[in-house]
Fold this sequence. Notes:
By secondary structure, this protein is an alpha/beta fold. The strands form 4 sheets. A 7-stranded mixed beta sheet has the order 2-8-7-6-5-3-4, sandwiched between helices. The chain folds into 2 domains: about 5-30 and about 300-405, Aspartate Aminotransferase, domain 1 (Alpha-Beta Complex); about 45-295, Aspartate Aminotransferase, domain 2. It has helices spanning about 5-10, 40-50, 65-85, 100-105, 130-140, 155-165, 185-195, 215-220, 245-250, 285-300, 300-320, 345-355, 370-375, 390-405, and strands spanning about 30, 90-95, 120, 145, 170-175, 200-205, 220-225, 235-240, 260, 270, 325-330, 335-340, 360, 360-365, 380-385.
Amino acid sequence: MGPALLWAERGTAPLDVLADFPAIPDGWAYLDTAATAQKPQVVIDAIARGYAETYATVHRGVYQRSADMTLAYEAARARIARFLGAASADEIVYVRGATEAINLVANSWGRTLKPGDRILLSQLEHHANIVPWQLLADRTGAVIDVAPLTADGHIDLDAVEAMLTPQHKLVALAHVSNVLGSVLNARRAADLAHAVGAKILIDGCQSVARVAVDVQALDCDFYVFSGHKLYGPTGIGVLWARADILGEMPPWQGGGAMIDTVSFSGTTYAPPPGRFEAGTPHIVGALGLHAAIDYVDAIGLDAIHAHETALVTAARDRLSTLNSITLFGPGDAAGIVSFDVRGVHPHDVGTILDEERVAIRAGHHCCQPLMAHLGVSATARASFGVYNGLADVDALVRGLERVTRIFG
Ligand code: PLP
């Protein structure tokens, strides 16, 4: 398919925003956005302003600067709520990232699980959406089930339907696989979970920057993501949960800011979201995340999705002409292409590509159960962001041609 057609088919034009990203030098193909996204200047500026001009603590200060910072910090929460289609800003809990969000749910909501209760995960989950549930299962006697994948690498929702029972209390699934790029039909997954009375947690780490999300339309119960994958800073992320669910959840970490009153005869806790935000938060991180969401929304997630799926199509088309390459995942993957070069370890692929100024990820991508399913110990992974274009696909293909020449 010709380059123009790649986008025309999707009713959009290619994005042209590379100049917004000062840390991407000319001629460097950054293809590791699934690990972490580069930052646009507006995010860097928001962070710099937060420290250099407006910095103060939040929620506690009696002075004007602190009151202003509190307003900015809470405005970011309201912006996140609007971005996710949440019913209220009180449904947004600031966390360090998706990993902490999932641990929060496992440690707080999960406390009520008992022996014989079941949790359903899938074969393609990131370790962050496996290990917290294993720790919870060890503590409570709950049992974990693992849903299989379809031949093209989607979570098999027909199998999920057949596996779910009234013993299932939670279904926790990735919206977009960080290895295969496969997109979950999250609404159908939510309907299946609810049909047996289970809650559903959607790991939105890879979807939040690639697919328009409306948590109410998806009808999920928990949605988690990390700010750094959404062109925002590291160290800040979001747990969204429905207000009625958050209201029932006990605190999981104790400290300042999460209390109502403290005495040695008994302590009472703040309502959500404060109840889950012990300690001084990542104040400037929230401002950076706000700027990142404004940036992404101004481009539009539908345009971003169209752009990245066009790049995936181009990459898959080109790579499939190299006969030493095995592609993993579906043709309609969102922004991510994993592959294997026959007879070459992915780390060697990554090292040679780096010499060609192409940055990819090589490894198990924190998805060892998925690697076992694919029958490999690691894959090479190219993942796209708003700043990538067809020149990056060309650079990847040229680099891989060199890999195959070197390794014969
Ligand atoms: N879930 C998925 C699908 C991911 O891709 C990642 C990060 O790679 C995580 C969870 C964990 O995110 P973080 O390390 O930012 O907490």
